[in-house]
Design brief:
Number of helices: 8
Structural class: alpha/beta
Radius of gyration: 17 Å
Number of strands: 8
Helix content: 40-55%
Order of helices and strands: HEHEHEEHEHEHEHEH
Strand order of the largest sheet: 7-6-5-4-3-2-1-8
CATH superfamily: Alanine racemase
Largest sheet: 8 strands, parallel
Strand content: 15-25%
CATH topology: TIM Barrel
CATH architecture: Alpha-Beta Barrel
Shape: globular
């Protein structure tokens, strides 16, 4: 049973996020429907996800496999079949087999070894995984991902891996008190995507997953096709 007050709060938050997304898209000469919203549901209960689904939100992102799959199972039990699940967190090499399942997209393939193991595990399971390659554009030691130079070097081999389909790139910008300061990071990812598309035109480089609650409007202005937003929809996290 959904709490009607909580459901109304989530619906209102979603409407405001979508309004801001549309404004940012139009400001940069883009169509609002060209940008997909992934609601980051990590740590939030299934009731909140159900409320967002009732308000028209279908894409949800989790960053830990240990939390993702119980939610997938619970959602199926509750008849929430219209959800598209995204794995947005990095995956440890020993857990790549646990990432094989009904996922719309794996956002954070952050090194060659992970891509190779996902390829192996997908082939073993007889399926194909849709993935993005995570790039550490900012160069922060705390961030995961390929360096731009390493990705350009590895791209041909990554595209040749069976069992995975690469659809583009993902990055996390540093948290900045002034969101405008993230613009160079997002612009650099778009420029890297454009270079990859030129060098490797047989690949699918259409997706740019970048931008979160603090900076998604800047990301959209710089070409994001997917934004990952949690607290602006669900409120502050407890954990």
């Amino acid at each position: 049973m959904l709490d009607p007050v909580r459901a109304a709060e989530i619906a209102a938050n979603l409407a405001e996020v979508r309004r801001r997304m549309a404004t940012a898209a139009e400001r940069s000469g883009r169509h609002p429907e060209d940008v997909r919203l992934v609601a980051v549901s990590k740590t939030y209960p299934l009731a909140d996800i159900a409320a967002a689904l009732a308000a028209g939100q279908h894409d949800f992102g989790e960053n830990r496999l240990e939390e993702l799959w119980p939610k997938v199972a619970a959602a199926q039990t509750e008849g929430l079949e219209a959800i598209r699940w995204h794995m947005i967190g990095t995956i440890q090499s020993r857990k790549t087999g646990d990432a094989v399942g009904p996922l719309a997209l794996i956002h954070a393939v952050d090194r060659v070894k992970i891509a190779q193991r996902l390829s192996r595990d997908a082939r073993t399971a007889g399926c194909v995984l849709d993935v993005l390659l995570e790039v550490n554009v900012s160069g922060e030691a705390s961030k995961h991902g390929f360096t731009p130079a390493d990705l350009l070097e590895a791209a041909a081999d990554l595209l040749a891996l069976p069992g995975i389909r690469i659809h583009g790139l993902m990055t996390m910008a540093p948290f900045e008190a002034v969101p405008e300061a993230t613009r160079p990071v997002f612009r650099a990812l778009r420029q890297l995507r454009d270079e990859l598309a030129t060098r490797f035109p047989h690949g699918d480089w259409c997706e740019l997953s970048m931008g979160m609650t603090n900076d998604f409007e800047i990301a959209i202005e710089e070409g994001a096709t997917i934004v990952r937003i949690g607290s602006a929809i669900f409120g502050a996290r407890n954990g």
